[in-house]
């Protein structure tokens, strides 16, 4: 059966909305993705990451992080199996001594072979790398593609000068789309009904949210800016449901008495990053990425942003993050989301889940996300791209 982006043509022919999104099992090419936190790669340190199925070698050299494909062009072995760096700016393959420059991927020498016609003429693939807000971003795309500004692949506000960012990352055993839709799902808050965050932060949390019309969603698609879909939590667009019933009998209540209300909006942006504003506190904003590792796993990179006006304020936020927001929000609250994603993975793993799912009215925001992602992505990752 012919494959397109790892999903069969037979299945794609039956998809009514978001065909390219369903095809992107391994993610969207020609986009920036966060790979790790800057603090996790020291000077001269080598790290290996896998993004969209591509194995990448990162090294910090004179403060700057460079990325090359983790595969020797000679016999195809991973350079990371036994990294040998005889000079600061190069790495030599442990097998036959092929030596590549991190800066441009050039085969500059072959250790032990002083002459060869291919020296200076062959390259290993390189990846553009940029650091921002304490994160290392890698551009995964086609060689020769005009690399866009990072601001087009992160949510608005994330790069604001006064926005301090703290976070954590972990590997999740589910496809990135399952993660993204879990985060943007307006009725999935039901799984958080017993969360420690409710009491810890005096949170008003309904059991579900019902959109009252198309005005509940807004699409942002400016040509030179990020592309995303907003779920607007306004009285005229969203109706919170605090009383849960089964056949007319009340069986569960939300927490309407909390003084801290819902976010003003939740939005999701290409290539797969959520912004919850404000959350988990009126002075904070949560940004979280669902980075494809391969077709079955994603990197869940969670961050919380706080506006600060001084080093003292940033230090205070750092303390609050470690002592409160990380254990209570990113772990205590979002652990429910991880559990849900991994439980849903089997349903979508063979791709038939996209045909068998039964959506309902509150899933309108997810449909808008699928449509936007299908129309405005810059390319779908395919088996050929990973080779």
TrEMBL record:
Keywords: 2Fe-2S, Dioxygenase, Iron, Iron-sulfur, Membrane, Metal-binding, Oxidoreductase, Transmembrane, Transmembrane helix
Domain Rieske: 32-138
GO MF, one annotated term: 2 iron, 2 sulfur cluster binding
InterPro entries: Cholesterol_7-desaturase, Homotrim_ring_OHase_catalytic, Rieske_2Fe-2S, Rieske_2Fe-2S_sf
Cell location: Membrane
Source taxon at top rank: Bacteria
SUPFAM superfamilies according to UniProt: Bet v1-like (SSF55961), ISP domain (SSF50022)
Entries under Pfam families matching the protein: Aromatic_hydrox, Rieske
Any one cellular-component term (Gene Ontology): cytoplasm
Keyword Secreted: no
Annotated source species: carbazole-degrading bacterium OC9
CDD domains: RHO_alpha_C_DMO-like
Protein name as annotated: Terminal oxygenase component of carbazole 1,9a-dioxygenase
């Amino acid at each position: 059966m012919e494959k397109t982006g790892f999903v069969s043509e037979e299945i794609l022919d039956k998809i009514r909305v978001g065909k390219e999104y369903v095809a992107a099992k391994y993610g969207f090419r020609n986009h920036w993705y966060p790979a790790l936190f800057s603090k996790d790669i020291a000077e001269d340190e080598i790290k290996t990451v896998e993004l969209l199925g591509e194995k990448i070698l990162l090294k910090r050299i004179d403060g700057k992080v460079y990325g090359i494909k983790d595969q020797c062009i000679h016999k195809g072995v991973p350079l990371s199996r036994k990294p040998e760096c005889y000079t600061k700016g190069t790495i030599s393959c442990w097998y036959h001594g092929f030596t590549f420059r991190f800066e441009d991927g050039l085969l500059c020498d072959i250790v032990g072979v002083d002459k060869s016609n291919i020296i200076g003429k062959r390259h290993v693939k390189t990846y553009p790398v940029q650091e921002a807000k304490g994160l290392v971003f890698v551009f995964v795309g086609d060689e020769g593609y005009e690399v866009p500004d990072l601001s087009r692949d992160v949510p608005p506000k994330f790069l604001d000068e006064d926005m301090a960012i703290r976070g954590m990352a972990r590997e999740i055993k589910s496809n990135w789309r399952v993660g993204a839709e879990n985060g943007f799902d307006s009725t999935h808050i039901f799984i958080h009904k017993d969360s420690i965050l409710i009491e810890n932060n005096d949170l008003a949390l309904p059991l579900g949210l019902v959109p009252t019309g198309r005005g509940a969603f807004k699409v942002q698609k400016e040509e030179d800016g990020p592309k995303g879909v907003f779920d607007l939590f306004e009285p005229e667009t969203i109706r919170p449901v605090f009383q849960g019933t089964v056949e007319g009998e009340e069986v569960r209540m939300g927490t309407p008495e909390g003084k801290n209300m819902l976010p003003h909006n939740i939005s999701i942006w290409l290539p797969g990053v959520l912004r919850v504003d404000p959350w988990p506190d009126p002075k904070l904003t949560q940004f979280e990425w669902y980075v494809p590792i391969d077709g079955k796993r994603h990197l869940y990179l969670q961050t919380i942003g706080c506006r600060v006006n001084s080093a003292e304020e940033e230090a205070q936020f750092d303390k609050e993050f470690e002592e409160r927001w990380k254990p209570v929000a990113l772990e205590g609250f979002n652990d429910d989301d991880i559990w849900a994603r991994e439980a849903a993975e089997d349903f979508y793993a063979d791709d038939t889940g996209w045909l068998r799912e039964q959506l309902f009215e509150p899933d309108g925001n997810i449909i808008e996300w699928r449509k936007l992602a299908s129309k405005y992505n810059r390319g779908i990752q395919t088996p050929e791209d990973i080779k």
